[in-house]
Automatic annotation (TrEMBL):
PANTHER family: ALCOHOL DEHYDROGENASE 1-RELATED, VACUOLAR PROTEIN SORTING-ASSOCIATED PROTEIN 11
Similarity annotation: Belongs to the zinc-containing alcohol dehydrogenase family.
Domain Alcohol dehydrogenase-like N-terminal: 29-139
Enzyme superclass (EC): oxidoreductase
Organism expressing this protein natively: Pseudarthrobacter humi
Cofactors required: Zn(2+)
Protein name (record): alcohol dehydrogenase
Length: 334
């Protein structure tokens, strides 16, 4: 099969990804083999390519927002039928036995595996997935629309719930890329008032089109105190900015897997009056199922930019420079 892999992590402009031939994978016990129909481009892929997250194996194939057709079944695999369309997300496997898995917090599993990091992902023509960690895709979404739901959407959903946003509350969103533009739609559907702070003028325009009440620069002061906020931008310098925009008792949820250094916080200005700062780590399968059900009801309308599958390196380069709004998706047929 053809695939992209991380040859040597480095600045994306230096070409850390390489396109070439790899052996076709075979599904193991309880696994399914997918013919990849679409793969979303996530900032985590950029972190992997550039070495902010070190690949956990040489020549790792990125990609964890995968829509595929089931073309093979491993031994004991019966959850899906040949020809079904399914999705693979960030979470590839958990142990099911550690204290976190046992209490329903499998996102904190002590020995997890992640698609495109621990195991090869969807920047390839073929991919294997454990049947218990795959999702049925609602028919309302095309392959291109569905791809960003599988990480950007799921993580945005968990971040929204982690923020503790009250009904009808005021939500601040810092950074407005693939995940944020889906989260804003969820929050607005649930009657929240949304304020967006982001450096990209195109992203500000998209936020307003989607129904945000305010969109301004990343360090702008929103026009009202926030009940909750979510930081999607991987910029630690925005943590105190967002905390100071919170009303008493508000929560800032940090949604990224990687964040630049956070400045020293001032207790009185940033945290006093029961402001909360918390991280969001991966997701549970329950998050994924709940989110896809909500996405279908709304229904969410992802803003996508299609790239030819052979242009994965260009898609990541464009992501690094905010060259597009919404989510990039790699499509074999483009």
């Amino acid at each position: 099969m053809r695939a992209w892999w991380v040859e040597e992590p480095g600045p994306i402009a230096s070409g850390p990804l390489q396109l070439g031939e790899r052996p076709d994978p075979s599904p193991g016990a309880s696994e399914i083999l997918l013919s990849v129909l679409a793969c979303g481009v996530c900032r985590t892929d950029l972190h992997l390519a550039e070495g902010d997250l070190r690949p956990r194996a040489v020549r790792r194939i990125p990609g964890h927002e995968v829509v595929g057709e089931v073309i093979g079944l491993g031994a004991g695999s019966s959850r899906f039928r040949l020809g079904e369309r399914v999705g693979a997300a960030w979470l590839a496997r958990t142990c099911g036995a550690c204290r976190f898995c046992q209490r329903g917090s499998e996102n904190l599993c002590l020995t997890p595996a992640f698609n495109g990091w621990d195991v090869d992902g969807g920047y390839a023509e073929l991919m294997t997935v454990h049947q218990d960690f795959a999702y049925r895709i609602p028919d309302v979404f095309t392959d291109e629309q569905a791809a960003p739901l599988l990480c950007a959407g799921i993580i945005g959903y968990r971040a929204l719930r982690s923020s503790g946003l009250p009904p009808g509350g005021k939500l601040g969103i810092y950074g407005f890329g693939a995940s944020a533009h889906l989260t804003a739609q969820m929050a607005i559907y649930e009657d929240a008032r949304v304020y967006v702070m982001t450096r990209s003028s195109a992203a500000q325009s998209l936020a307003l089109r989607l129904g945000a009440e305010f969109a301004g620069p990343a360090e702008a002061e929103p026009p009202a105190l926030l009940d909750a906020a979510i930081l999607f931008a991987p910029a630690g310098g925005l943590v105190p900015v967002a905390l100071r925009a919170l009303d008493r008792g508000g929560t800032l949820a940090v949604a990224g897997i990687h964040l630049s250094e956070i400045p020293v916080l001032d207790y009185q200005k940033d945290l006093f009056q029961e402001r909360h700062l918390r991280s969001v780590t991966a997701n549970t399968r329950a998050d994924g199922r709940e989110f896809l059900s909500l996405a279908e009801r709304i229904p969410l309308r992802p803003t996508t930019v299609a790239y030819a599958w052979t242009s994965a390196d260009q898609a990541l380069l464009d992501l690094s420079t905010d060259a597009y709004s919404g989510a990039a998706v790699l499509l074999p047929q483009v």
